[in-house]
Write a structure and sequence with these properties.
alpha/beta; GMP Synthetase, Chain A, domain 3; Rossmann fold; 2 domains; 9-stranded mixed beta sheet; 14 strands; globular
C-alpha cells in the first residue's frame, strides 16, 4: 500500500507539474483481497483528460497491481465538465430534497416525456438474468458514444441502479418547481427509488401505489434533453409494466435472458406481454452466454449454447447479440464501476459485445442511410 500511495502521489496531472499528491487529490486507497480501489478528486479535470489520467494511473501501477484488479473511481463536488459533456447544467447545492408522492397512480392518456427522443424498456420474465447490469453497461456504452442518456430504475421492490452507478447514499434534490433532479455518474443521468429509502428497508406497497411514483419518475423529473431513456423494469409481468404502458409512450423494448430453458420460458412470457400491450420488441439479448476463465481465457458454456438465438428464430423477433460473463463484469457491478466505464477492458469479448449491441440500438433509431427502411429496420420489422 505504501508503494501504491507513493506512485499515485507522484503522478502528474498536467504539464504544469502538479501531481495528485501536491493537489491532495487522493481520497482513498482500499485493498479488498487482490483488488485495489483508488478514489480521487477529479474536480477541474475534463472527461478527455480524465481518461488519459486514468490510463496513466493504470500504467504506472502495473508493476504492483494487475490491470484486472485495479478499480479507479473519481469523485466530484463540482462536476461542471461532466454535465457539459452530456449537454446539461450542473446542479447547484441546495437543501431542497425531492419528495415522492406515495399515492395511487391512475391510468390516463399516454404521454411522452418532453426532451426525450427515444424510450427503451428493458425487461425479462425472470429475475437473476443480469438485466440491471445490462441496462447500466448499455447506458454507459451509449453515453461514451456521445449520446445523452438517462436510466429509470423501475424495479421499486428491488432497486439496484444506485449500487451499479456508485451512488448508494445520495438523495435526489428538487428544482424550485418541485421537479426531481436525477443523479448522475459515468455520463448517465438516473433516478431510482433506492435513493429515497434506506437500502435495507423493505417496500411493502400494493401495486397501484407504484404507479404514482413511476409517474413522478416519468413526468415530474427534470430529464433535460436525452437521446435515450432506458427503463430498467422489474422481472415478471406485473403492475409496473402495466402502469408504464398505460401512461407512457415507449418506443420499443429489449428482452434479456440467459440461454437455459427455464429462463427462456419466462422470457417468452415477457415477449407475449409486450405483444399484448402493443409494444414493439426490438430484440433479445443473451446474457451470461458463457463464462470466460481468468486463468486460461477459455470459454465455458455453462448454460448451454445459442438458446436465445434459437428462440428469436422461433418467435420471429430480432437477435441483438450475446454477452459472456467475466469476473470483472461481476466485480464492476458490486463496486459501482460499470465494466464499460473502464477503458482497460477495451477489445475483450464483453467489451466488444456491448459495443455491437449499442451499435444495433443506434442503427435501429438512426439508420445510416435515407431509405425508407434500413437493413436493420427490415430485420426488426420496424418502419422508418
Amino acid at each position: 500500500m505504501e508503494k501504491i500511495l507513493e506512485i499515485l502521489n507522484s503522478i502528474k496531472i498536467n504539464d504544469s507539474g502538479a501531481t495528485l499528491g501536491s493537489e491532495k487529490r487522493i481520497i482513498s486507497v482500499d485493498q479488498k483481497g487482490e483488488d485495489v480501489h483508488v478514489k480521487y478528486n477529479r474536480d477541474g479535470i475534463s472527461p478527455e483528460n480524465k481518461k488519459h489520467l486514468e490510463d496513466y494511473i493504470t500504467e504506472k501501477l502495473s508493476s504492483v497491481v494487475k490491470d484486472d484488479n485495479l478499480y479507479i473511481l473519481s469523485e466530484s463536488k463540482n462536476s461542471s465538465e461532466v454535465y457539459q459533456s452530456i449537454g446539461s447544467k450542473p446542479v447547484a447545492e441546495t437543501k431542497n430534497p425531492a419528495q415522492l408522492k406515495v399515492g395511487h397512480g391512475q391510468a390516463s392518456e399516454k404521454k411522452s416525456i418532453p426532451g426525450v427522443k427515444n424510450i427503451v424498456a428493458i425487461g425479462s420474465g425472470k429475475g437473476g438474468v443480469g438485466k440491471s447490469s445490462f441496462t447500466s453497461n448499455l447506458a454507459v456504452t451509449l453515453a461514451a458514444a456521445g449520446h445523452k442518456v438517462g436510466v429509470i430504475d423501475a424495479d421499486i421492490y428491488g432497486p439496484s441502479i444506485p449500487m451499479l452507478f456508485d451512488r448508494r447514499k445520495e438523495k435526489p434534490e428538487a428544482t424550485e418547481d418541485k421537479k426531481i433532479i436525477p443523479l448522475e455518474n459515468y455520463g448517465v443521468k438516473f433516478i431510482s427509488f433506492g435513493n429515497f429509502i434506506h437500502e435495507d428497508e423493505p417496500v411493502v406497497w400494493r401495486g397501484p401505489m407504484l404507479g404514482g411514483v413511476l409517474n413522478q419518475f416519468f413526468f415530474e423529473t427534470d430529464w433535460g434533453e436525452l437521446d435515450y431513456l432506458l427503463l430498467d423494469l422489474p422481472p415478471g409481468t406485473g403492475d409496473v409494466q402495466l402502469s408504464m404502458v398505460q401512461n407512457l409512450e415507449v418506443d420499443t423494448a429489449i428482452i434479456v435472458s440467459t440461454p437455459q430453458d427455464v429462463a427462456l420460458l419466462d422470457a417468452r412470457k415477457a415477449l407475449h406481454m409486450f405483444d399484448k400491450m402493443g409494444l414493439h420488441v426490438m430484440g433479445m439479448v443473451e446474457n451470461m452466454s458463457s463464462f470466460i476463465c481468468d486463468n486460461c481465457d477459455k470459454e465455458h458454456f455453462i448454460y448451454g449454447t445459442n438458446g436465445v438465438l434459437a428462440a428469436t428464430s422461433e418467435l420471429g423477433v430480432g437477435y441483438l447479440g450475446k454477452i459472456p460473463l467475466e469476473l470483472a463484469l461481476r466485480k464492476g457491478a458490486d463496486f459501482g464501476t460499470p465494466y464499460m466505464s473502464q477503458n482497460k477492458f477495451e477489445g475483450k469479448l464483453v467489451w466488444n459485445a456491448y459495443k455491437e449491441i449499442a451499435s444495433k440500438v443506434d442503427s435501429y433509431f438512426y439508420p445510416s442511410d435515407n431509405k425508407k427502411k434500413s437493413l436493420l429496420s427490415k430485420i426488426f420489422k420496424k418502419d422508418k
